[in-house]
Design brief:
ClpS_core; single chain; Ribosomal_bL12_C/ClpS-like; peptidase activity; 59% helix; 4 helices; Ribosomal Protein L30, Chain: A; alpha+beta; 91 residues; protease; Clp protease ClpS
């Protein structure tokens, strides 16, 4: 086995063990588009365009993954979404 093959094999194993969690935002009949967009920009570091697209997906599909990453990064973001009156959970 060559060094190149061994390195590629080790990289594949590392990629498989990385756990990506998803912060999922759910639709509600209470919050305005502007509130959702502003909250996503402030909480999830979205650009205005990203936040608008996510708000539309949530509106029409019922939910949208708004951020992925390690649980420790998503937990405080999820808490901030809840504090803003939005419905979200980590999967």
């Amino acid at each position: 086995m060559s060094t190149k093959e061994r390195t590629e094999e080790e990289l594949l194993l590392e990629e498989e063990t990385v756990q990506e969690n998803e912060l999922v935002l759910y639709n509600d009949d209470v919050n305005t588009f502007d509130h959702v967009i502003e909250t996503l920009i402030a909480t999830c570091d979205h650009t205005p365009e990203q936040a608008e697209q996510c708000s539309l997906i949530v509106h029409f599909k019922g939910k949208c993954t708004v951020k992925t990453g390690p649980f420790d990064d998503l937990k405080p973001r999820c808490t901030k979404l809840h504090q803003a009156g939005l419905s979200a959970e980590i999967h």
